[in-house]
TrEMBL record:
Residues 1-44, 53-72 are annotated as: Disordered. Residues 120-198 form the Smr domain. Residues 16-35, 60-72 have a biased composition (Basic and acidic residues). PANTHER family: DNA ENDONUCLEASE SMRA-RELATED (PTHR35562). It comes from Morococcus cerebrosus. This is Smr domain protein.
């Protein structure tokens, strides 16, 4: 029994010594870690946290000047414009047709047989400016159809109450090679005409 007791005491003593050594080792490791942490803090110094922001990155604005778009090239060269001279104070007729289609063309214009694809108002233009507009207008209409309307006014506001722009427009239409006919589209209103022009061939468009 004595031998067994001694053996037990020895075993207990060894266990206690081992536990004491392990505890001492843990304490030493903890002190070493604290020392390392202190050294790191002293090396870094005071740290200021970054401020949070909700702004997104935006590229700098382009302040270079805007380049103007090139002006639209006229569909006609100036030498191709059709002009008539001044004069001819006799008032042109309310309707006109040529090329032997007289009654048929006029009747179809009155009945709305041809869809009106465009219109233009010549108020405010000089006679020369109006003729330039009319040249461009004929080309514009031919790309879209054969019928259009031109507002030239009755001329009541002209000097001497002479319908200068009205007479010039109708004489211009009577002489233009591509104009087949015109009529006054609304009864009692002589301030406008509806025109019928030659259809352009596809290869000319």
């Amino acid at each position: 029994m004595k031998t067994d007791f001694q053996s037990t005491l020895q075993a207990l003593g060894k266990q206690a010594k081992k536990e004491a050594e392990e505890k001492a080792a843990e304490e030493a490791a903890a002190k070493k870690q604290e020392a390392e942490n202190a050294d790191f803090a002293s090396m870094v110094g005071t740290v200021t946290p970054l401020k949070q922001t909700s702004q997104y990155y935006s590229a700098p604005r382009d302040k270079s000047p805007i380049k103007p778009r090139p002006k639209e090239v006229s569909s006609l060269d100036e030498e191709d414009y059709f002009y008539i001279g001044s004069g001819g104070w006799d008032e042109p007729p309310a309707s006109f047709s040529k090329n032997g289609q007289g009654k048929n063309d006029l009747q179809r214009l009155r009945n709305g047989h041809y869809p009106v694809v465009a219109d233009v108002d010549l108020h405010g233009y000089t006679q020369e400016e109006a003729q330039q507009v009319l040249n461009e207008f004929i080309v514009f209409v031919q790309k879209r159809g054969v019928c259009a309307e031109i507002v030239h006014g009755s001329g009541l506001g002209s000097a001497g109450y002479k319908p200068v722009l009205k007479n010039m427009t109708r004489r211009w239409l009577m002489q233009h090679p591509d104009v087949l006919a015109y009529i006054e589209p609304r009864e009692g209103n002589d301030g406008a005409v509806r025109i019928l022009i030659k259809r352009r061939h596809s290869e000319e468009q």
